[in-house]
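> example.struct
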């Protein structure tokens, strides 16, 4: 059984933290347990320690089609999993004593990445022609949050997802040991080390917080771009709660 879980909204640093922890001799898989599959498959994998390797666990995305790529983690060494798909299951009794790291990233960057880079939330139903949804990740999001299909504007859909996914994590972590961190926090390494009780602090190979974020040169999304209404107000409240210094 794993010792801890890293989770967030996706596009927020879960791949980075999996690699960072592994580099600190705390082997953390990426979506090794929690992925696009249904609840029964995920629980079976958890209970049997039947871990798997996501594409991100096998290499950086820059070389994921390289036939000579090498895995950066071994299945039999995994003691943690990092995945935004863990969020719906954090209240399972099997995870009662698991430590949780809830990672945030600038919400506007997360939304930009979802909309512009991997093209999620572009339609009122999941975009099955999207290569990044070929395994069913966006389908699963819509299954968990079916009200997304009732929102007309793609930017509002992305904002709603961001709000509700973080809220779900918080609600499912009642009475758990939780460390909430920003990926932009320069002190995050020390906070994680202290929280998990890691004795080895050497970062052997990795220190790229933008790993797997697909940064494009497209224009940034601004608060002013979000249609006025409850979703925008709730989104701004979350910005203030997490103390992101964003002008609007």
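> example.seq
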């Amino acid at each position: 059984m794993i010792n801890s879980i890293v989770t967030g909204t996706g596009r927020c640093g879960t791949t980075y933290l999996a690699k960072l922890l592994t580099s600190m001799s705390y082997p953390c898989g990426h979506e090794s347990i929690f992925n696009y599959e249904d609840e029964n498959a995920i629980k079976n994998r958890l209970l049997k320690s039947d871990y798997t390797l996501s594409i991100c666990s096998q290499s950086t995305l820059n070389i994921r089609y390289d036939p000579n790529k090498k895995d950066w983690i071994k299945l039999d060494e995994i003691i943690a999993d990092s995945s935004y798909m863990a969020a719906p299951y954090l209240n399972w009794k099997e995870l009662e004593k698991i430590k949780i790291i809830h990672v945030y990233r600038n919400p506007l960057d997360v939304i930009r990445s979802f909309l512009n880079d991997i093209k999620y939330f572009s339609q009122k139903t999941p975009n099955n022609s999207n290569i990044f949804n070929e395994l069913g990740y966006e389908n699963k999001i819509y299954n968990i949050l079916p009200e997304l299909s009732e929102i007309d504007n793609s930017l509002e859909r992305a904002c709603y997802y961001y709000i509700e996914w973080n809220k779900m994590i918080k609600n499912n972590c009642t009475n758990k040991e939780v460390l909430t961190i920003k990926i932009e926090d320069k002190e995050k390494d020390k906070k994680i080390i202290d929280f998990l009780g890691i004795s080895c602090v050497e970062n052997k190979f990795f220190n790229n917080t933008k790993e797997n974020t697909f940064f494009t040169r497209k224009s940034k999304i601004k608060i002013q771009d979000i249609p006025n209404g409850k979703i925008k107000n709730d989104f701004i409240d979350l910005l203030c709660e997490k103390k992101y210094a964003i002008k609007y």
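> remarks
The longest helix spans residues 154-172.
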